[in-house]
Amino acid sequence: MAMAISAVFASASEFVVWTRIYPYQNVYTVGLGIQTVAVALAVYLHKREQLGNRIASTVLLLFWLATVCLAVMRLRTEFTTGVLKSDPPAVIANVAFVLTSTVTLVLESQPKPQMLYELIDEDDEDYSGYTAYQSPEQRANIFERLTFTWMTLLLELGYRKPLQLEDT
User: Fold this and answer.
1) 51-83: string of b/e by CB count within 10 Å (b at 16+)?
2) Around Cβ 106, how many Cβ atoms within 10 Å?
3) Residue 48 lies in a domain
């Protein structure tokens, strides 16, 4: 969560640097303004999803992936057009945004150990051990589903011994 907030500050600093370079409105500064608002909204949604959901939000993961890709393309453009020599703070702000967005994407795609808001009373008759018997596919995020990495542990266990229902 701290890295996502850092991404908002990096995006805002990049916006401020570029509005200093181009005091008039152009596509680049307007795009950075929209990016800053979108990243702030993503941080808000990230906070809501983190507190109540075991699986990372597909929309947020795809957002962070697209944001990283677009920021890397913007960084490449800054290098090829010579912005590094003429205005290094703009490139430094973009590098900071790329790094914080990438770390946010990597951290968000990691599985969460448990639901933060789930309080289960084991003495309750309705307790069925839902999280204990939830399949790995249900706990997988979008990238794990696309690459079938959610099956790795199950396949390794099945190689060592016959699988049982409790092995999920």
Assistant:
1) eeebbbbeebbebbbebbeebeebbeebeeeeb
2) 12
3) yes
pTM as predicted: 0.69
Q: Is 105 exposed, middle or buried (0-12, 13-18, 19+ CB in 10 A)?
A: buried
Q: How many domains does the chain have?
A: 2
Return all residues near 76 (Cβ < 8 A) that are at least 6 apart. Answer: none
Over residues 10-48, the pLDDT tens digits come to 888 888 888 887 777 778 788 888 888 888 888 888 877
Question: Which two structure tokens, joined as six digits, stand for 143?
Answer: 């990238």
User: CA 87 to CA 91: how far, in whole Å?
Assistant: 7
Residue 120 lies in a domain: no
Say how many CA atoms lie within 13 Å of 29 toward its Cβ.
Answer: 11
